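Subject: Sanity check before I submit

Could someone independently write out the structure tokens for this chain? I want to compare against mine line by line before I put it in a report. The sequence has 387 residues.
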Amino acid sequence: MKKYSVLIGILCIVTGFGYSQSNSGTINSTGNNNRAYIKQAGNMNTATLVQEGDLNNLRIRQDGNENQAEGTQIGDQLFGVIRQFGDGNTAVLHQDQETVGYWSTDTRVRQVGEENYVEQTVLGPENYGVVFQNGDLNIATQYLEVSSDGRIEQTGHSNYAEQFLIENSFSYTHIIQDGSYNRAIQYQKGTQFGATIDQTGDYNYAFQHQEEDNFALSISQFGNYNTSFQAQYGPADDEAGILQNGDYNMAQQFLEGTGTTYSFQESVQKGNDNSLTQMTWSSSNANAMWIDQIGDANTAVQLQGFTETDGTYHPDDMPSDNNYAEIWQEGFDNTAMQTQLGPGGHDAFTIQYGNANYAQTWQTGSGHMNSITQTGNANRAVVTQNN
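---
Independent answer below. Compare away.
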């Protein structure tokens, strides 16, 4: 039997008096199949809703400024929603799933206005949390664990979004920001998970950090003066990719493998419609890669311990260590590709000045060194070394 807890009588009185007073609404329920709803209109209101049990549903809506909403659910197969319309509002939504299995929870927060704050916590396996914010100077923080997915979408300027996944496996987080001067941060610890940041606008910053094994990182930035940073710590089978379209963008990648030596990947792009890919598979991860591109429509690819087939990248039969690769391109429509396989100890360096140039380096085995320098237009160089 379903139970319904709704603050309707109080709410009608509140809205009847307009926005001149602050109100407080609280609902506590224990058991299964509960439904609870709080709706408030006005400023400086507080709403608190607590549910303990399974198959429960909570909803809070607030219209006005400087309101506070807090929802807590403990149990299995939960659903929670908070909606706030106005400025300076705070929403805190916490879900704790008790049973490990197919029972899932769903938590959603939507805010429209400026200087709003969201804190969302989803504990337990196979859960989903999403935050939507529309306005400027908003902050969203999301905590998830154990095979959970999270999503934050922000539209506006000077917003901040961060996601934390702890003790996760088979998890995915996604941050989408549309505007300028935004910051996005993702932190994950566990195995077999992915993280994506998509930003559109100028002067944005994206940071991704992953620990343990089987990572997949992706950053996409469209605009000018954007910055990206990726850091990975753990064994092999990790992937990191950055795509930037615009002027004066910067991308940096950092990887650490099972050994004690660091792998460092960095890219700098100035121009429009440039793309870069850098991937490393290493047992000790004593690899370093650098890409610098100035101009439009340039492409740079550097692979260490990876191969490419029809645009798809695959780990080679063995890792490759102690490699160094560097690409410098200035001009338009240039392409540079460097692949290093085998035990390692390779050096590859490509410089291209001009337009429509193509350079490819393929080194297999150990201890190879190669340097390509091309100046002018429509040049082509291909170097293959193996032992």
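---
OP: Matches mine. For the report I'm noting this point. Residues 4-20 have pLDDT under 50 and may be disordered.
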